[in-house]
Amino acid sequence: MPNDIRKPAHAPVRSLIAVEPRFALSFCVVLLTGASALASLVFACATPFAAYAVVAGAMLPLPPALAVVAATWLVNQAIGFGVLGYPHDPNALYWGLAIGTAALLATAASKPVLRSLTRFGAAAALGSALICAYAVYELALLAFTPALGGTGGFALSIVGRLFVLNALWLIALFAVCAVIRLIAGVRRRPALS
Question: Per-residue pLDDT tens for 113-123?
Fold first, then answer.
């Protein structure tokens, strides 16, 4: 099959590549766990896991992307239970596990969208992946409500507001990557004498 051109299993969104590929995992861990700590302290229960899922999925192959998103979830939970005083009861613990599960499912859902739409540009791929990841995240959480309660959190106004929050975080993380890529590019240039 001479004309059979296959895409690699992981084709990163080029505009999110801020560092050399060998540092991508470390960079992604620092970027997203730092963002998770900031978002957890500022927004508590509104941490933008769908945005994190898309960024990790865009930068990394699926297994390390899942590990990075799991690390962001752990940071969120540690801050929630350790600093923000989340109740230490079974329902809160189960909701924490539900959020982690939903974040991992959102990461897995974003990968095929990113892979198939990257050729249409970063904005199309990232935007579509965010819509998909957010839908999967919210549907996964909704699936837990019969056992855990909390259907009031799925009002259209709340879901819409949280989607906008995720979109803004995705744009901010994209901008951070662009700035770091610019700085890293400046540092690699030879000094003029």
Answer: 999 998 888 89
